[in-house]
């Protein structure tokens, strides 16, 4: 697959946009084959899942043809969309609203793991981060950041808060920026943090 | 329970890698084909690719999806 779309890509896109059944069928086959390969080693995936993910991905690709930037091969972009569709569905499947609530409650109220005293510099940075997360972030920023860090998918957090996954990303980005600014104000710029982290390796 | 020591270190690294302006996951998806192609073949570094690479540093879900995409592209190129 090349670096940018080709004249053949452009004619295929035109056929897809026009609802050409043969072009849509070829896209469906290519996506199904790719997803089957990508998900082959995952447990709990059946052929019906591949078919569902493929159908959703084809729908999403057709709806998003206008957003294709023509800076990669069309198949590469379409496959990236398919991977997003499948992985988002799988992430959503692993988390129920109740399990997200339970996890966030545990993360935001629980004690942090102790850092060995032998790692004093790290212990100080950890304690400061703990303090800044508790005092410098909004409750939603705190929950989104800690949840994401603990592996709660953006889609599950988004459903929990009734917002889009993009809004969750913005929440965590705002939280990281705020922590960065607060850490800098306490003498921890990027180089100082990198130095503390490197010392423990 | 709260975060583990490793998770706190990961958070500290994420804070270091945080940029004032970042693209989100939807914008990353628009650029990931370009990034995947650039990783597979020599290419010049564009601002668009640099922003996509920066997003990857702070987004484990997009990292996971890129790994899967590269695996598919690798299988298809054989």
Tell me briefly what this model is.
The complex is a heterodimer of chains A (201) and B (78). Chain A is an all-alpha fold.
Polypeptide structure, described:
Chain A is mainly alpha-helical and 201 residues long. In chain A, α2 (21-38) packs across α3, α3 (47-63) crosses α4 (74-94) and α8 (154-161) crosses α9 (165-185). Chain A folds into two domains: 7-94, RNA polymerase sigma factor, region 2, helix turn helix motif (Rna Polymerase Sigma Factor, Chain: A), CATH 1.10.1740; 98-199, no CATH class. Chain A is 73% helix and 0% strand. Chain A has helices at residues 7-17, 21-38, 47-63, 74-94, 97-109, 120-136, 139-149, 154-161, 165-185, 190-199. Chain A has ten helices and no strands. Chain B has one domain (5-77). In chain B, α2 (25-40) crosses α3 (47-58) and α2 (25-40) packs parallel to α4 (60-77). Helix content of chain B is 76%, strand content 0%. At the A-B interface, α2, α4, α6, α7 and α9 of A face α1, α2 and α4 of B.
């Amino acid at each position: 697959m090349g670096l940018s779309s080709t004249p053949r890509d452009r004619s295929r896109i035109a056929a897809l946009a026009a609802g050409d059944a043969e072009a849509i069928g070829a896209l469906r086959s290519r996506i199904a084959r790719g997803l089957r390969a990508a998900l082959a080693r995952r447990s709990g995936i059946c052929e019906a899942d591949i078919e569902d993910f493929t159908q959703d991905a084809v729908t999403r690709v057709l709806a998003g043809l206008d957003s294709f930037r023509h800076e990669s091969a069309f198949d590469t972009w379409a496959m990236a969309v398919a991977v997003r569709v499948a992985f988002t569905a799988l992430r959503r499947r692993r988390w129920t609203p109740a399990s997200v609530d339970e996890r966030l409650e545990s993360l935001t109220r629980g004690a942090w793991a102790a850092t060995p005293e032998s790692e004093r510099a790290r212990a100080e940075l950890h304690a400061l981060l703990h303090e800044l997360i508790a005092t410098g972030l909004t409750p939603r920023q705190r929950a989104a950041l800690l949840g994401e860090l603990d592996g709660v998918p953006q889609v599950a957090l988004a459903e929990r808060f009734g917002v889009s996954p993009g809004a969750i990303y913005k929440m965590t980005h705002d939280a990281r920026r705020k922590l960065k600014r607060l850490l800098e104000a306490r003498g921890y710029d990027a180089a100082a943090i990198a130095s503390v982290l490197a010392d423990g390796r | 329970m709260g975060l583990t020591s490793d998770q706190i270190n990961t958070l500290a690294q994420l804070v270091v890698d945080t940029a004032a302006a970042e693209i989100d996951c939807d914008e990353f998806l628009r650029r990931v084909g370009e990034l995947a192609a650039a990783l597979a073949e020599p290419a010049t570094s564009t601002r668009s690719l640099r922003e996509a690479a920066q997003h990857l540093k702070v987004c484990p879900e997009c990292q996971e999806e890129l790994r899967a995409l590269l695996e598919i592209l690798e299988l298809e190129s054989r």
